[in-house]
Each structure stands twice: as structure tokens, then as C-alpha cells.
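Re: that chain you flagged

S.,

Sorry for the slow reply, it's been a week of failed gels. I finally had a moment to sit down with the sequence you sent. For the record, here it is as I used it:
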Amino acid sequence: MTEQPEQKKRTRQPNGASSIYLGKDGKWHGRVTVGVRDDGKPDRRHVERRTRAEVTRAVRELEKQRDAGKLRKAGKRWTLGAWLEHWVTEIAKPYVSENTYDGYEVDVRVHLVPGLGAHLLDGLKPEHLERFYLKMQRNGSAAATAHHVHRTIRVALGQAVRRGHLTVNVAEIAKAPRLEEEDIEPFTIEEVQRVLLEASRLRNSARWVVALALGLRQGEALGLHWEDVDLAAGYLRTRKNRLRPKYAHGCGDTCGRKPGYCPQRKQVRREFKSTKSRAGRRTIGLPEPVVKLLRKHREEQEREREAAGGGWRGTGYVFASPTGGPLSPNTDYHVWKQLLRDAGVRDGRLHDARHTAATVLLILGVPDVVADAIMGWEPGGAARMRARYMHITGPVLKQVAGQVGDALWGEQPTT
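Prediction finished late last night. Pasting the C-alpha cells below so you have them in one place:
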């Protein structure tokens, strides 16, 4: 039986259907409609192979990828650098908080674009990222910095996938930089008492009470307004977060200083933002000693208002400057560090006060659901946060050991 030659005639297919034909160049070609281009015309992808069987397989694979939504969009191929710069300014900036954007922007400008930006977006591999993270750390970056960069590019590439510029987010495949678990030791009750005694000599002394007794985050404490505090009913609500100030030159960048030290500097960031998460917007009951301290604090602030006269800003902050303006988070941090030194207490992060407050709730045996509400932990991640913030202290271990001893070796009932 003689073999019939392959059909060369190109038959017209219905609109939108894939086509396979033998070209004048002697190769087999296939065209697959996968969508619509930006100009509204059909997006037809082309493949060519030596035989009809090969091109048929290629066409079927294109159709499969199209139907699964895994085809890259048509158009000019992005470089990673161009995509990251577009993503951070046009996509991320309008929708994330100022602090989140700042972190993204630094990661993109300082690390990702110089280190990886020349790669084609769809040519980036997990191994490129893993080698880059190691290089960052060899050049002196902390593991936490490399880990933050990893999270940033994972978000950026996730947007590229959702918009059809990529089919796979390689940052989800790449191994993230390893972070060593931080060993945090909360302050003891005695240390807390020494800190509060020293704080009582400072203005805004109640600021440190709400940190150590209630576990408020720095932004929550500095963003607290008097309208959020009901001393008669004995509770406060966390609804606002103080933002870290950001400045721009008011002199046209002629003073030779950084924007924050410009004599005519201008504030370019709002003072606070509303708390978005449901868990973050919470109501916290105030122990009676805290109510008394806040009443005293309000009286002291009223005297400062009278002394300031027309210079009083009247912004409504619970913890304010002598003229009623908001406190700087940076200054607040340095006051905390000095407070620990003056109290003769070991050094610790400001956030360690929150760990201490959570541990006190554990020592007191406060039910988990109540502790979660006080600390502002989201229900889905509350168990993980309790494990991170509530530390098993010596007194707790001693109490449990005593209970075990009583149960196993205590007085046995007589029969």
C-alpha cells in the first residue's frame, strides 16, 4: 500500500477555531485564538513544527493552557524591573497603607530592581530568587531584610499572575530566607513595677501604663483620642493608629539637609489612619487603677492647655505634646529606652511591653477568647499569636509543677 502524501490544502475554519496548515516554507503551522488583544482584535497565537503530528500536539497544548487560564497576555514582554516599578507605584500605592507602601518601595528600589531587574518577567526562575537572597545576606543584609524582600516580590508576582502577565508565581515556589526564632523574655512583674514607678515621674506617664497593662501597640497608644475613652464606664476603644511622620523639603531642596531636618519641612503624610481590621477595632475594659491614672493624666493635660493658651493645637490626642500635637513614634521609642535605663531594667524592645501584657493575661488564667479580644488578634490566627506572645514564665511553671505534685503525691484518701 503506497503512503498518501500529507494534505497540503488549507481549509477555512469557523471564526475563533484553531487552524493547522502546511506553509510555503515546508513547515506545518498552527494558529490558536486565545482571547482579545488590548486593541479589541482577536489574540491569535502561532506555532510551527516540522510535521503535522507535532504541530497538532502544540496546538492542543496551547488550547489546554488557554482553557486553564495559564497563558501569558499578548503584548510587549515585561522585564522584572519594569513590572516591579509599575506595580509598586500604579497598583500597590493607591490601595495599601503608607507604612506598607514604604516597605514595598524600599525593597523594590534598593534590592530587587538593582539585583534582579534585568530578568524578563516570564523568564524568572525560583533559583534566581534563592541565589539572590543568599547574595543579599553575604553582602551584609539581615535574614529578616531578605525575608521581607521575598514577601514583597511574592505579592508583586501574584498580581502579575492575576493580570495574565505570568502563568506561575515563582516566588511561591522559591524557598524563603530562613528566620531564626527570636527568643523573647517578657518583663517580670517586679520589672514592670519598677518601670511604672519611674514612669510616674514623667509627663504622659499613663502612656506606659496602657502599654504594659493593656498591651496596646505603639500606633494604637499614640493614635488614641479622648473621644475613644470612657472613664465613667471604664473602657477605651482602639479605632485609630498613629502613622510615622514623613516630610518633604519646603525649601526646594536647597538647605543641604535630609527632608526631616529641613528648616521649612512639610508634613506629607496624614497623622493617623483608621483601624481597618475588626479585631484591631476593639473595646478594652480598664482596671480601676488605670482609670484613676487616666483621670489624673487628663487633669494634667488640661493644665498644659491653659498654659499654652492660643498655642494649643487641640487635636484631641490622649498622649500629646505640651502644645496638644501628636507625639512622634521615634521620640516615643527613645523615651522608652531611656525609661528602661533610668528604672535599672534590662534593655528591651518597645513591642516587648505587648508580650508582657499578653503573658500577664496567661498568668491570670484569662480565657483565650477574652485574651484574643483584649490583644486584638484575628480569630483565624489567634492560636498562633498566643503561642508567639504568651510566654511560660517561672511562676507559671512552678504553679503547674505544684499542681502535678499534689495530684500524684498528695495525700491519698483512706479506704
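What I noticed first: The first strand starts at residue 19 and ends at 22.

Talk soon,
D.
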